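RECORD TYPE: protein structure
NAME: SulP family inorganic anion transporter
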Amino acid sequence: MNSVGKAAEAKPSFKEILASDLPASLVVFLVALPLCMGIALASGAPIMAGLIAGVVGGIVVGLMGGVPLLVSGPAAGLAVMVFGFIQELGFAVTCAAVAVAGLVQVALGALKVARSALAISPAVIHGMLAGIGILIVLGQVHIVLGGSPQSNAWNNLRELPGQVMDLHGPATLLGLLTLGILIAWQFLPNGRLKKVPGPLVAVVGGTAIAALLNADVARVQLAADALSAIKLPSLPEGAAWGAFAVAVLSLALVASAESLLSAVATDKLHTGARANLDRELLAQGVANTLSGLVGGLPITGVIVRSAANINAGAKTRWSAVLHAVWMLAFITLLGGLASYVPLTVLAGLLVHVGLKLVNLAHIRELRHRGELPVYLITVAGVVGINLLAGIGLGLGAAILRLLWQLGQVRVERQVSNDVHQVCISGALTFVGVPKLSTALAQIPSGSKVEVDVAVNTLDHSGFEALESWADTHRKTGGTVVMEPLEDVWKRREARAAPAAEPAAALAPSSPVHHVSTLASGGAQ
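PREDICTED:
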């Protein structure tokens, strides 16, 4: 195990699997089945592609992964990205990109760089998922109302009033009913009824009503033979190789970040074996490669299904594996039942998923921490341009915010009895050197100066700038009374040293608060 935890995973007994993991796997299966179909719909892919990803993710990552209770499969967080790639490259080439992205993940896992994904600012992650949620809502609400989604967010928004004025009878009724059931389910008191997965109730309820009304609406289409539904990948041709490379890297990086953050969040939910992030990343890569080769969607670890797994009493990795076995059995034996599910019912489920990805609690927390601008920039980029642009803008804003914070050096000057008293506080780094130099340049040559260096951060550039000014001031006839900067440097290191060990111990859980609350806000 890596540094996230060293607890060994206990070998389960058959009795333990039967008593805890078997019922938990059924709960996860009932949660995952409608979501796998819905995410495929949002991705513009065949419905079977979502089910294939659910099966491959459950079995491969379940057996190989480094987080025993994490459940993997297709996630709403990649739906918008995949939709764009399918529109640009076609489904078969997108499957090839998924497969190659998996190989990239395997390489990253072998290089043991999994922890570097945790360096991504939580504000960017929250903003990315919120932007994806908005795009899902804007697109799928058209299907809920009985129409068709447009090509981008602006067109979806522009056409929405016309869609509202031209409702499509039964399709609109079923979509709104599904959405209403999902919203109402959240407010049920805890009890036996609440334990039934809301997505299952909404999809089964909407499907039953459609059957009773004999509604003439578009429905899920699955091939009678599951094997015949498998779409083999194909490589791009000509100028499409550049877009293909972008798709590979984008899928690998975003899927890896989402999986690893979900893995860390899952660790917070139980007291069993701790996560091995490098092993998890490698397993995710193998699963994505296999999923792409057999025509499946990209796979990530999904915290909400994992939370349902843990809450249902799962103890070992077999619950995740068995949920995929039940899904495979459904596809091969009962796949015909899916043809009764109206597409507008799945769209209602997806609108609810998208709404949950925009979490007001996250916005309030980020505002309190001063990170709301990073969040809003990321959301605007994802919605207004595309997912990669939004992530890039968010990361750029996060870096600029960090540089701004590093430049927050405060230089206070006053004169008392012909003595210039200077107090330097805050962060004295290379970013703040120009501000420091400007303030010190206003002190007359030959004057007596007392400098109080009370900084909490001091880098080499700040050290040299202050030392150089003091030397120059003395050479021009002035006097400088200042604690030796070497002592300031040593005192700063001494303050950091005792905290090093506890900080290292807490480091794996530091992003978890953000990630776990993030994940709990989205039904994936």
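COMMENT: Strands lie at 71-73, 300-302, 409-416, 419-428, 448-458, 479-482.
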